[in-house]
Design goal:
Blueprint: H1 3-15, H2 34-46, E1 54-58, H3 62-68, E2 76-78, H4 82-90, E3 96-100, H5 106-118, H6 125-135
Parallel strand pairs: 1-3, 2-3
Helix pairs in contact: 2-3, 4-5
Length: 136
Amino acid sequence: RGIEFKNRLIEYLHEKDIRIEDLGPYQFDPLDDACDYAKKVSQAVLQNLENHLGIVICGSGGAVAMAANRHKLIRAAVAMNTHQAVHIVENDHCNVLALAADYTPIEEAEKIIDAFLSAKPKNDEKYLRRIRKLDE
């Protein structure tokens, strides 16, 4: 359900000269599974954890976040606003943003992506301790 949403966001990122790799889907298929694409994104992020971030999309954001989190060292989370996007990066070291195409206006999604991409993880001991526990 997120194909048109994804395509609009790709245009937005291209306009900002942000380098992306579109891992699909490339056309609407009512029988595809968003989890398959979340797996592709997770594998791409794992190729270079220091420099790659991912964005996954489905109707609710939930299924793709759960699928992405099946991969060790992937920390995926849904963000519904910019404050949440900053929080999940700063405090939780999120490296895959999950977006809900059915519940997020495209203009808000653009702002969420901007916040996600500009936020930096905090390195306070309490956050690092939590990340180590997640990654074990």
